[in-house]
Automatic annotation (TrEMBL):
Its EC number is 2.7.7.-, 2.7.7.108. GO terms for molecular function: AMPylase activity; ATP binding; magnesium ion binding; manganese ion binding. Mg(2+) binds at N256, D265. ATP binds at G91, G93, R94, K114, D126, G127, R177, R184, D265. The keyword DNA-binding does not apply. It comes from Vandammella animalimorsus. The gene is ydiU. Belongs to the SELO family. It catalyses: L-seryl-[protein] + UTP = O-(5'-uridylyl)-L-seryl-[protein] + diphosphate; L-histidyl-[protein] + UTP = N(tele)-(5'-uridylyl)-L-histidyl-[protein] + diphosphate; L-threonyl-[protein] + ATP = 3-O-(5'-adenylyl)-L-threonyl-[protein] + diphosphate; L-tyrosyl-[protein] + ATP = O-(5'-adenylyl)-L-tyrosyl-[protein] + diphosphate. This is Protein nucleotidyltransferase YdiU.
């Protein structure tokens, strides 16, 4: 077999950490892997492809783990985490880090196989993955990337040629995931749990060198408080973006909180339909711990666990270290509120938020909740109003827009916009930039995954292509841009 036609430039800096942070592991040998998806655009960004296309058979061998790229050193990473508030030691139970691809621009990107077989951290599991969850992660992560939200990304999905047993027999698959790194809050919790401050320092220094070199340069004597501050800032910005698009992660355990500030691990996640702050999208979250409205407080709780792990590095005096940690943690809420209010103001066409704008937004959200209005479609319809376009067909908005009390709110909103110097066209452009027309509706995702399990990838590919392409709000009629909605009044992805 000839070598893969990919321009690998792998190194393995993670192995410079103490050996306690990882274990050597080998992927399973899969009988008949086949390439289902290959992200050509991402491959080019990573420097893996120039102009030539990858041979699907070669890709299947590499991205199943049957063949390693040059210089790969597969390891499973160790970490811990608070899962639904309870601490446990974890690790990559079904994932292998092959190494880090250095792009032509000098970025260092993890290449990880997910579902490649058991590792020392598998805890009696088979370490394998079914096709549908791997396709879900590919779809949602690429949709998040298209929305401009920091996220891990998906390079490939291959089927493995074998069936795996869950509640029923399912086709097996491996996802190739890329990330700035897979460092997590749980990685620092693991370091602290070893009881060796040298391990915490080694991990913190690695995070600084890889993700926050400017922090290290500006604080050479003691960079660790600034490291905590940097992670808090990135998480505040990330959570604000989630809330602005109605994204619910579903399982915000500390092992699912990324140090570089990425959305990571797409399990029972979804975008909210009818606006309800108590919305939960995980069947195992029976108490609503990770409901939509609780995501920012949970992020702060998770960051407190990071601060606890870093205490020995913040200051030699424990009381001073706790004071430093608490001072940094207190910055999360105001930072989140700043980012959130700015983003939501832009969804309403407000360039420079002023006192009273938060009340305008909160009143809208309250009316949306009272009328069970669709979250995304409401903001789409407001945007279409600014374009003098017909948005009446958007599902889930009819009761809200017919409400006389909403008409009064609408008048106040228009009066607020009229105070700005910007033109109506400029306001509409601002709203469009912060209001996605297409989102991966959960029922559409599930339908596409069911078809894929039955061997039909066309619905999935149609959905993926629609989510990855910019949507022109000025297109008339709008529904003609939606692949399976030939008639007015039927919304493929925005509606129900």
């Amino acid at each position: 077999m000839k070598n893969p036609t990919l321009n690998w430039n792998l190194s393995c800096t993670y192995q410079a950490l103490p050996p306690v942070f990882y274990s050597q592991a080998e992927p399973a040998d899969f009988p008949k892997p086949e390439t289902v998806l290959f992200n050509t655009a991402l491959a080019r960004d990573l420097g893996l492809l120039a102009d030539a296309a990858i041979d699907p058979q070669e890709a299947a061998q590499v991205f199943s783990g049957n063949r390693f790229p040059p210089h790969a050193q597969p390891i499973a990473q160790a970490y811990a985490g608070h899962q639904f508030g309870h601490f446990t030691r974890l690790g990559d139970g079904r994932a292998l880090l092959l190494g880090e691809q250095t792009t032509t621009g000098g970025a260092r990107i993890d290449i990880q196989l997910k579902g490649s077989g058991p590792t020392p951290y598998s805890r009696r599991g088979d370490g394998k993955a079914a096709l549908a969850p791997m396709l879900r992660e590919y779809l949602i992560s690429e949709a998040m990337h298209a929305l401009g939200i920091p996220t891990t990304r998906s390079l490939a999905v291959v089927t493995t040629g074998e069936m795996i047993r869950r509640e029923r027999l399912l086709p097996g698959a491996v996802l190739t995931r890329t990330a700035q790194s897979h460092l997590r809050v749980g990685t620092f919790e693991f370091a602290a749990a070893t009881g060796d401050v040298a391990n915490i320092r080694a991990l913190a220094d690695y995070a600084l060198q890889r993700h926050f070199p400017e922090v290290l340069a500006e604080n050479p004597a003691n960079p660790y408080p600034a490291l905590l501050q940097a992670v808090i800032t990135r998480q505040a910005a990330l959570l604000a973006r989630w809330q602005q698009v109605g994204f619910i992660h579903g399982v915000m355990n500390t092992d699912n909180m990324s140090i570089p500030g990425l959305t990571i691990d797409y399990g029972p996640c979804a975008f909210m339909d009818a606006y309800d702050p108590a919305t939960v999208f995980s069947s195992i979250d029976r108490d609503g711990r990770y409901r939509y409205e609780n995501q920012p407080p949970i992020a702060q709780w998770n960051l407190a666990r990071l601060a606890e792990a870093l205490l020995p590095l913040l200051d030699a005096d424990e009381k001073n270290a706790i004071d430093i940690a608490n001072a940094e943690l207190r910055q999360f809420a105001p930072l989140f509120n700043q980012y959130y209010q700015q983003g939501m103001a832009r969804k309403l066409g407000i360039f420079e938020p002023q006192e009273g704008d938060a009340d305008l937004l909160n009143e809208l959200l309250q009316r949306m909740q009272a009328k069970a209005a669709d979250y995304s479609n409401t903001f789409v319809r407001l945007t279409l109003d600014m374009l003098d376009a017909d948005g009446a067909y958007l599902d889930g908005t009819h009761a809200l827009f017919a409400d006389p009390a909403f008409a009064q709110w609408h008048t106040r909103w228009q009066a607020r916009l009229a105070e700005q110097a910007q033109s109506r066209a400029d306001i509409a452009a601002l709203m469009q930039a912060h209001t996605p027309f297409l989102i991966p509706r959960n029922h559409r995702v599930e339908a596409a995954l069911s078809a894929a399990e039955a061997g039909d990838m066309q619905p999935f590919n149609t959905l993926l292509a629609a989510l990855q392409q910019p949507f022109d709000y000025r297109a008339e009629p709008h529904w003609q841009r939606l692949p399976d909605a030939p008639q007015p009044g039927y919304q493929t992805f925005c509606g129900t």
